[in-house]
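Bug report

Summary: structure tokens for Amino acid transporter differ between web form and batch submission.
Environment: batch mode, default settings.
Steps: 1) Submit the sequence below via batch. 2) Compare with the web form result.

Sequence submitted:
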Amino acid sequence: MLNRGFGFRSALSLAFADISPIVALYAIFALGLFAAGPRFFWAFPLVLAGQMLVALVFGELASRWPYAGSVYQWARHARGTAWGWTAAWAYIWGLTLTLSTMAYAAAGFLLEALDVVEPSRLQLMAVSMGIIGLGTAANMVGRQVLKVMIIASIMCEIVGSVVLGIVLLAFHRVNPVSTLFDGLPHADGGTLSTMLVATAFVGWAFLGFESAGSIAEEVEEPERNVPKAIVLGLLLVGTIVMFSAVAVILAIPDLPAVLTARTGDPVSATLTTQLGASIAKPLLIMFVIGFVSAFLAVQSAVSRAVYGMARDGALPGAKALSRLAGPERMPIRAIGLTAVVSALFLLLAGSDLYNVLVNFSVLGPYIAFAVPVFAAALLRLSGRWEPGPFSLGRWGGFVTYAAAVWLALEIVNVLWPRTQPGQPWYINWSMVISLVALGIVGVAVYASRRDRISEPVGERS
């Protein structure tokens, strides 16, 4: 049994740190800018609106079934074991790849802060592995370390996102507001196609709000506190991300040259040019702290998903992965497994496949989100939905169906093969290939464990 060591503020802080405005913006800023130009900004409010629908549905589901594992438990109780297992399988792989992405991005910022201008693959891999090891060790120690890192993350977010945005807008704005409607100069493809690409990348920015549901069994009064943490966490992060995005876009010096070159890191270059190296370096360190804290929050969420599945006998090695250890009764082995797998992905992918890592980090969670949302929609259509303490009332059906449509459209958008100049065919089809491969493996694993999975219970304590 997991100990209850989190209150509402801790759950909200975890959701905030998991999404992390710093991570949400700076990990995909260059990808979005180079895909659609400054007008990629408008993908942020679009994705935020869609994800807010999902967050509201998750709030209802978390209030009805406040169990460790979030999407796994919600889908399983709403529609059955096969649905829950499918959601968890996609969730685990997607979030584990997110750990790889965060570690790699944090390594780039850290090396840049250390004046390593063009780091080698070996340097990036070594620092990334160090970040995975540090984050994993911190998560294994216990909840207190996680709480401290989350507080440090929030402080960095305030300075690195809010204060920085105010300074850039007030003193270093060099581009007019109309710039936000500009595309790439001499770009192939129309506005719709480039914005769809940008929307796929921006989809990565607003993931992680469900993490408050992953630790539901460790939260006091979870049926009330978890839904509030899920919704408010996403709303806070979304507001800060959009504000920071505007500030950075309008502060980029010689924007036409940056858009023509479509290389390098426009965020770091802008900060160095506008604020000077002496100010830019501490900001880069803050970015690293933000990424590491988000790494801790994401790993906390995915390890609880692994633990929740293993506790029900749904994974190979379930007995070992469901064991809790230490005075705080932590799922140590589940945490360690996520570290090993994320490190292996990073070694296999490397810098050449960073955009593939980002895309699958979007695809996996979106599929995982879609399963419980579709399950909730079917439950409503059948007339068997029973709300918990957190309820949308008469708006619940509309919001649930709209969230299902949004997720379906975004999954197709992310999955759609797009030709990338200079890349081999298997990179352009990497999303489809990855989905099919993990789907085949998933079917085999589920078939081998199906008869050993325990039935969902009405209450857990």
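Above is the batch result. After comparison, the two runs are identical; trailing whitespace caused the diff. The two ends are 7 Å apart (CA to CA). The chain has one domain: 8-452.
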